[in-house]
């Protein structure tokens, strides 16, 4: 029985369809006899073959990110995207040796090898039978340095190819914490308020200090092979190994605890040294970057001596830059300014928006982005493939995570369409870049306030059914410490709210959870805080939170959300009414006119220039 696929005759033949056609033509006779007999309308019993194939013609599901990927995962994505903004470096040993800066890269590689030998990272041994070998490669980076502190420098790092490791054989546990960006901003607020000394150190070859618990063999580094018949038996941890960050953190954590520091219960990379129940020294750790703060410079100097005795350190003096954030401080005025001018300027230059016409809001008030504006045809998708949409979102997102709360709402909107962006979405992203181009000098200004004023205050808001596709509402909150923003968030709610009251109540719950964490954190850091005030502009949500009432219209609200009432009863928090015009959280849930947007920025001490 001859068989043809009519659908393939109509459409151009792609590689996948050719494969499917060949498979169809090879079906054996037994399968052909089992085909369904479908009588035609004339009543004859002529055999017909349905022109539908499950594998080829079924409707494809829309791939969505798992629900477990939350705010922390977006931060990780932003960090990765931010790396792409930096200048390009050699990708391998050959490119470095052929580069016009080959002398600088060779010098950097020799320094790295000397450091590895000094640390006794490995010893050369013959490879035992039936043992796996992990590869190695060189990674190159040009460090911009810190103005007035250190000049740009070339760094070469030998790393293991950790992607070839097998779980259970080459490694077990790999998780390692880093300090939260919020914790860094909290420290900035405390340092400025109490006029503390703030200094910075860097750990040289930090990962090499970790002790390995597994037996790992590695190839000798390219360009430095001593004996082709031998491999490196690792005695110490090495960059690239999956367990390296964890082993380094454990080593550093053990050292600090023995030195007399106390680890925070709210952030595992925040440490405090106390004397007579008073904090005399703060230390924050982000992989190998260390921030230290104290009212007594002698205490900082003693800590530096202890660190130098245990690890190979680099003293960077007064803190000027951390994680791409510039720290500008005027102690005489009692001001500390946190910005990312240099990084964001590179972002704007990378996307060729330097000469663009600037706008004064992050997202146009007219912007109504929808999934219906995504490409529908294959031609439209191919046209958008060359558009660096996802990279642009991630690059700007890193600025939002660190020091730019003004970008939160815009990023929460444009990031919804990264899987399949359309031309309208790309224009919206370029609008954000135009706003950035005109506000590169923007940042958070920490000032000294009246000691009698509450240190911590929060603001929450919601936009009911703000997502025009799913009709899910948007939540936003911002918390200030001594009058300046230290944490903020703008995201889509996980359920569809059935009323404005429910939407505002869900947003309030998110704010209360953040308030509990922040209150505990600053309490450990020595800031006395009573009942935390959270400001909300919804009278109905406040009434629902403050009163144990049952109402027909609110009986569907999830019982877990009512823990807010417990927090109010125990006087952990207090929910107060605020006028919408005075609620800075408004800019985290909707696009605002310029005047209202500027007023919201002023309320959280964000300065645009």
Number of helices: 19
Total count of strands = 22
Mean pLDDT: 85
What is the terminal separation in angstroms?
Answer: 78 Å
Largest sheet: number of strands, sense, barrel closure: 6 strands, antiparallel
Strand content: 15-25%
The dominant shape is: globular
- Biggest sheet strand line-up: 8-9-10-11-5-12
Share in helix: 25-40%
- Radius of gyration equals 29 Å
Structural category is alpha+beta
SSE arrangement:
Layout: H1 6-10, H2 15-25, H3 29-33, H4 54-57, H5 71-85, H6 93-98, H7 102-118, E1 122-126, E2 133-134, E3 136-143, E4 153-160, H8 181-193, E5 197-203, E6 217-218, E7 230-234, H9 244-259, E8 262-263, E9 270-275, E10 278-286, E11 289-294, H10 297-310, E12 313-318, E13 321-322, E14 325-330, E15 335-339, H11 341-350, H12 378-385, H13 389-402, H14 408-414, H15 423-438, E16 443-447, E17 456-463, E18 474-481, E19 484-492, H16 500-524, E20 532-536, H17 539-546, H18 563-569, E21 573-577, H19 594-603, E22 606-607
Parallel strand pairs: 2-6, 17-20, 20-21
Antiparallel strand pairs: 1-7, 3-4, 5-11, 5-12, 6-7, 8-9, 9-10, 10-11, 13-14, 14-15, 15-16, 16-22, 17-18, 18-19
Helix pairs in contact: 5-13, 11-15, 16-17
């Amino acid at each position: 029985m001859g068989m043809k696929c009519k659908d393939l005759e109509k459409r151009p033949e792609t590689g996948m369809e050719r494969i499917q056609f060949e498979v169809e033509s090879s079906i054996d006779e037994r399968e052909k006899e089992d085909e369904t007999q479908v009588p035609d309308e004339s009543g004859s019993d002529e055999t017909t073959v349905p022109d539908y194939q499950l594998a080829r013609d079924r409707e494809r599901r829309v791939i969505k990110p798992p629900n477990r990927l939350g705010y922390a995962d977006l931060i990780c994505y932003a960090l990765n995207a931010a790396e792409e903004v930096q200048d390009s470096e050699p990708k391998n040993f050959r490119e470095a040796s052929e580069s016009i800066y080959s002398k600088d890269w060779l010098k950097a590689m020799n320094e790295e090898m000397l450091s590895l030998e000094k640390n006794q990272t490995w010893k050369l041994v013959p490879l035992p039978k039936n043992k796996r070998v992990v590869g190695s490669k060189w990674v190159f980076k040009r460090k911009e340095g810190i103005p007035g502190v250190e000049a740009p420098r070339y760094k070469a790092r030998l790393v293991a190819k950790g992607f070839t490791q097998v779980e259970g054989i080459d490694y077990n546990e790999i998780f390692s914490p880093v300090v939260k960006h919020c914790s860094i901003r909290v420290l900035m607020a405390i340092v400025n308020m109490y006029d503390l000394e703030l200094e910075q150190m860097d750990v040289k070859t930090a990962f090499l200090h970790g002790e390995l618990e597994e037996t790992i063999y590695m190839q000798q580094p390219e360009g430095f092979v001593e004996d082709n018949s031998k491999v490196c038996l690792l005695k110490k941890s090495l960059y690239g190994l999956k367990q390296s960050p964890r082993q380094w953190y454990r080593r550093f954590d053990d050292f600090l605890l023995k030195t007399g520091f106390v680890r925070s219960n709210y952030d595992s990379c925040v440490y405090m040294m106390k004397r007579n129940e008073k904090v005399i020294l703060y230390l924050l750790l982000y992989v190998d970057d260390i921030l230290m703060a104290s009212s007594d410079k002698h205490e900082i100097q003693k800590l530096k001596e202890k660190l130098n005795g245990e690890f190979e350190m680099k003293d960077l003096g007064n803190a000027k830059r951390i994680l791409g954030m510039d720290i500008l401080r005027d102690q005489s005025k009692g001001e500390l300014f946190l910005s990312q001018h240099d990084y964001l300027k590179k972002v704007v230059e990378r996307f060729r928006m330097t000469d663009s016409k600037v706008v004064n809001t992050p997202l146009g008030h007219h912007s109504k982005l929808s999934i219906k504006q995504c490409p529908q045809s294959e031609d439209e998708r191919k046209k958008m493939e060359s558009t660096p949409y996802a990279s642009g979102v991630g690059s700007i997102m890193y600025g939002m995570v660190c020091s730019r709360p003004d970008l939160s709402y815009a990023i929460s909107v444009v990031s919804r369409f990264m899987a399949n962006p359309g031309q309208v979405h790309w224009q919206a992203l370029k609008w954000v870049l135009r706003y950035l181009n005109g506000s590169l000098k923007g940042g958070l200004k920490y000032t000294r306030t009246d000691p009698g004023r509450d240190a911590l205050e929060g603001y929450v808001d919601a936009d009911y059914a703000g997502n025009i596709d799913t009709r899910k509402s948007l939540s936003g909150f911002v918390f200030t410490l001594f009058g300046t923003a230290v944490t903020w968030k703008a995201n889509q709610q996980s359920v569809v709210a059935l009323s404005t009251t429910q939407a505002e109540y869900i947003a309030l719950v998110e704010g209360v959870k953040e308030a509990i964490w922040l209150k505990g954190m600053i309490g450990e850091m020595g800031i006395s805080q009573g009942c935390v005030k959270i400001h909300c502009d919804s009278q109905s949500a406040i009434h629902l939170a403050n009163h144990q009432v049952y109402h027909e219209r609110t009986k569907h609200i999830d019982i877990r959300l009512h823990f807010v009432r417990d927090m109010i009863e125990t006087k952990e928090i207090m929910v107060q009414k605020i006028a919408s015009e005075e609620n800075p959280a408004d800019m985290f849930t909707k696009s605002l006119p310029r005047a209202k947007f500027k007023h919201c920025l002023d309320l959280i001490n964000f300065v645009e220039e």
